[in-house]
Design goal:
This protein has about 220 residues and is α+β, with helices and mostly antiparallel strands. It folds into 2 domains: about 1-100, 2-Layer Sandwich (Tetrahydropterin Synthase, Chain A), CATH 3.30.479; about 100-175. It has 7 helices and 3 strands. It has helices at about 30-35, 40-55, 60-65, 65-80, 100-170, 175-195, 210-224; strands at about 1-5, 10-25, 85-100. Strands 1-2-3 form a 3-stranded antiparallel β-sheet. A hairpin with a 5-residue loop joins strand 1 (about 1-5) and strand 2 (about 10-25). The model has no long low-confidence stretch (mean pLDDT about 80).
Length: about 220
């Protein structure tokens, strides 16, 4: 049998119920003659019990409590119908079916929740990637700085040793003379590096008058 009722949150649902029963051998007379229509009487008790149970539950709770509703229905029917020679073997709430629009709304709510969770997890993943990337860049910059510092320290130690050695081996020289020589060597090393075919260098003079800058740019273009 099926009946329509309303939940506590004002949602109309159709409840499908299946009742299994049999006549008590010792109370056959009561089962057939006390009630004029046992089936209708039993249906009335089922409707009353189901409505009383479901009306006190929200829709979600009702779906979760089908077993509880079935047990309540069986207990109530057993107490009542036993006096009329009928024993209740089982009373099952087989399904609760709300209106189609309600089901669609519930599905949409669940889908929205899952999309929200998916977006949250995706954002968390992107956040972790950005944080890890920033940490990697910071670590790279730190290590690069350490490398540059060590390189400069090694250069300074080398220059110091060179100045000391040159001053010891060449009498009369001053540290400034040694530094000038080292700077000159670095100048020639720089010129050698710039002579690479993949390097494009434009030399501009200090002359700012006239068309000096334009002429030098034209000369550079002609060399390319």
């Amino acid at each position: 049998m099926s009946l329509e009722t309303k939940t506590k949150d004002n949602v109309f649902v159709t409840v499908f119920v299946s009742v299994q029963y049999q006549t008590i051998r010792e109370k056959v007379y009561s089962a057939y003659y006390v009630l004029s229509d046992p089936h209708s009487q039993m249906r009335a008790y089922v409707y009353d019990t189901i409505r009383a149970s479901v009306c006190g539950m929200n829709l979600d709770h009702a779906f979760e409590s089908k077993e509880e509703i079935s047990l309540s229905l069986k207990t109530h029917l057993q107490e009542t119908m036993n006096n009329y020679g009928v024993i209740i073997l089982n009373a099952l709430v087989t399904d609760l079916s709300p209106d189609v629009k309600v089901r669609d709304a519930m599905n949409e709510i669940n889908a929205s929740k899952r999309l929200k969770e998916s977006a949250y997890q995706r954002a968390e993943g992107e956040k972790i990637l950005k944080v890890k990337k920033a940490e990697a860049e910071a670590e790279s910059m730190y290590l690069s700085g350490v490398g540059v510092a060590r390189q400069r320290k090694a250069i300074m130690d080398g220059l110091k040793d060179s100045i000391i050695a040159f001053s010891s081996n060449v009498p009369g020289t001053t540290p400034k003379d040694v530094m000038d020589l080292l700077v000159l060597n670095q100048y020639f090393d720089t010129l050698q590096d710039m002579s690479n075919n993949n390097t494009k260098v434009v030399f501009l003079s200090n002359d700012t008058g006239g068309n000096s800058f334009r002429n030098q740019m034209m000369e550079a273009d002609a060399v390319k």
